[in-house]
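Q&A log
Question type: sequence-to-structure
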Amino acid sequence: MNNIFFTKFETPFETVPFHQIKIDDFLPAVKAAIAEVKSDLDKVKKSDERETFYNVVEAAENAGKVLDIVSSTFFNLHYAHTNDDMAKIASELSPMLAELSNDILLDGELFAKVRKVYDDKNQLNLDAEEMRLLEKKYKEFSRNGALLTDSQKDQLREIDNKLSKLTVKFSENVLKETNNYQLVIEDEAELAGLPEDVKAAAADLAKEKEMESKWVFTLHFPSYIPFMTYSENRKRREEMYKAYTSRGMKENEQNNEAIVKEIASLRFERARLLGYDSHAAFVLEERMAKNPDQVFDFLKDLLNHSKEAGVRDVKEVTDFSKENGGPEEIMPWDYSFWSEKLKKAKYDLDDELLKPFFKVDKCMEGVFTVASKLYDIKFKERKDIPVYHDDVKTYEVKTSDGKHVGVLYTDLFARPSKQNGAWMTTFRGQFRTKEKDIRPHVAIVCNFTKPTESRPSLLTFNELTTLFHEFGHALHALLSECKYESLSGANVSWDFVELPSQIFENWAYEKECLDTFAVHHETGEKISKELVERLLKTRTFQEGRATLRQLGFALLDMAWHSGDPRNVNDISDFEREATAETEVLPRVEGSGSTCAFGHIFSGGYSAGYYSYKWAEVLDADAFAAFKEEGIFNKKVATRFKDNVLSKGDSEDPMVLYKKFRGKEPSSQALLERAGLI
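Response status: OK
Response body:
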């Protein structure tokens, strides 16, 4: 067909030719690619040859590679640079792709062939990765309806079709709610406490909106977080907090309450249809934590270690507030403000003292340097690779001896067309054919403050660790050395996927690492040893409350997905009950997390939010190995690359971890690092 996606991309490394793609290309390309997948699978089904791993399982794995490229390109753009036209297309594409998935996984003929190979697996002399793919494919069918009756399969199709539309709608509503709000300030006196660069960014935004002599703040992180941290205007902080925490809960067209209930209920019905007690039971069967009880035990153990510390943390902030003329009771919109002041008083350190050392371009050089020291790879900026927005930069990644590793896109700055938050994604995954090793095309997407002609982009330390985090994910994808794309890179168990990202954050706290890039953007002086020591002391600052906050999100996720949510009447009451043990600040009527909780209702983390804390146990234990031998020790780095980063999901994650570490992980390192014991 005459469509850009069905031609060989005449670009460096066959990267996506964004400059040639039109929005109108996506829908016909997806339809044609779906037809190609079905045609490829029909050949598998109709073959008279005796079923083998290669003509059934491997053939199914390789069916319709064009669809992978089209769908990844579209949905990556939909999250990073969307518009109303793309939103309409997303609402059409999502159910089409859900229907295709059902067509494949509910196909009795295809499953019969996969099952025949699976039943003969012990006689096939497969290598470890081939056996892993076979077992994953069989479970993919058996866990998603292949064993159901025809009427049950129809029910499953209907549920999946509805879910595909609802999750897209949920995400669109959150983005619209975020974009629709703005706090306009006309009196400069109301900006008291805000750093100059924050005020300048707000003034720039006002000019963009043709509001001269005013300042505009939004719910996007580069605006919202510094406002809540530094603004002395308590009334305005309250206004911003309530706007942020009521997203999806207001009585307007973006209300997500009914959508949330329906998503959770459909997931429950789907799980029961497949023979599981709950959505969480279905999901966790294939995770390192095998069932809901193990997750609840894990969360309860962390809760027991952190509750007293969290209560003590809030008391410390409250006492400090009272001693310094602040409120007698700390409300949620006071916490960041007074916590930051307390940190400044205790450690003589705040973001404004650190930010001059974290110019975004130098920080990118920093993550490149760390990767180079650990894994012998180099990053060279390329101007000839097409991009989808002027903010995006591209890099070719090579080994030190010149071998091509992959392509990295960086999209670092906030804009209205981009979802909040930060993430890593791939435009093309890594896999091997008989002829060649197909190398990955990887992107990291963030929401940092954009530089201007007069003002550089300076990161807070939290933003710096976010950059390191997403770059850790990127390394997982870039350094992959797998045979099959569905097992490569970050396509791993959800409670293992955060290990490569979270372990990489640790380098941001090390003077030896910071010395490679953290220089004052005006004076050129290196960050001092004394400043880094003060930074290290802050690592346990208010960690009890921070842990409780994460546990609250994890428990809320499990509450929605480990039981029957169909009888939930009031979402606020349900959320309050689910998170009660983690609450150490007053709850605010009309505020909540559920209706904007994109991680679990549109982002793939349903029954999986606990994995952040789970992976923290892994990363603290794993980084201890680097600390024992040296943070740039090549032997430890090679062991981590060979057994974790390069392996994807080619083996069981606990097996891979033990190959690297020599033992199962212990929570001791995390509890010590967090100051909880």
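Response note: The first strand starts at residue 183 and ends at 185.
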